[in-house]
Amino acid sequence: MREKVSFDDEPLILVDEDDNEVGYRSKSDCHEGHGTLHRAFSIFLFDKQGRVLLQQRAAGKPLWPLYWSNSCCSHPRRGETMDQALHRRLREELGLEASLTFVYKFIYQADFGDRGAEHELCHVYIGSSGGEARVHPAEITDWRWVPIEEVTRELEDAPSGYTPWFKMEWKALMDRGRNHIDTR
Fold this sequence. Notes:
This protein is an alpha+beta fold. 22% of the residues lie in helices and 35% in strands. Strands 6-3-8-7 form a four-stranded mixed sheet, with helices on both faces. A three-stranded antiparallel sheet has the order 5-4-9.
């Protein structure tokens, strides 16, 4: 069993709507009730065949367990730069390295019944990777490389199996960020 990489008490960065730091709070506290606005990131990894790496969140996740989502997502911790957090989490969750490009950021809020919520100012990145994922079993139950068109079709036909942030981010990537995706 690999060492634990995600902790309820890890200090996350609270932000205002302009992404200015305004304080710190534990991860578990940030996700209680309707959530407290905090900094986060999402990564989409593409391969040269035009596929994106999707992950199915582990059953032990408190929010959206067993839902399909983007390649990697998490939060920078107090005292950690976004770049440090991005690469730390890629290694922890997927055992991968990748060169990443910032695409955009946005604010969203999504409740998961009465179990808690996400309320994040999320920075979205894309990158390319041809490596074989070595997923962390406490973070990811399953993973797969999926052609871009198939992801779009799945989201139209059966959106309920995907995380809310993934659905928003995918639409924005396809609408205004597709030119950033390098599949050569």
